[in-house]
């Protein structure tokens, strides 16, 4: 299985980017992982929130395959602890999924178009985080999930 993380907009913090890269490199020992950044939508001042979400959805949909297992990182999604998340990853792998795609949306969330095309929603917390921080948190949790599945000492309980 491959895992892809799609995110809207670039990270303006080199420190965060360095940390995300660190976990990306660690993940290579377990699974093929790609982080793909979709450029911010241009001229958003002239767009409503809904129009902006629809344009972001169009850009995201161009990056997806019909066989992808797509999960939105959404504040209203299901919350997991780390062990439960590891088991969720295992379940998706056991289904024979070729590619699992996590999506981080833009500042206003997701268009209804995307909600209809996905297999699920995950919330990392009841708190709100910047989209840049979410990249780090999800990549670290994916890494943590694989160390849990392999019974490696990274995760302590």
UniProtKB/TrEMBL annotation:
The keyword rRNA processing applies. The keyword S-adenosyl-L-methionine applies. Keywords: Cytoplasm, Methyltransferase, rRNA processing, S-adenosyl-L-methionine, Transferase. One of its GO terms (molecular function) is rRNA (pseudouridine-N3-)-methyltransferase activity. Its main location: cytoplasm. S-adenosyl-L-methionine binds at residues 73, 105, 124-129. It comes from the Bacteria. Homodimer. HAMAP family: 23SrRNA_methyltr_H. PANTHER family: METHYLTRANSFERASE (PTHR33603), RIBOSOMAL RNA LARGE SUBUNIT METHYLTRANSFERASE H (PTHR33603:SF1). This is Ribosomal RNA large subunit methyltransferase H. It comes from Saonia flava.
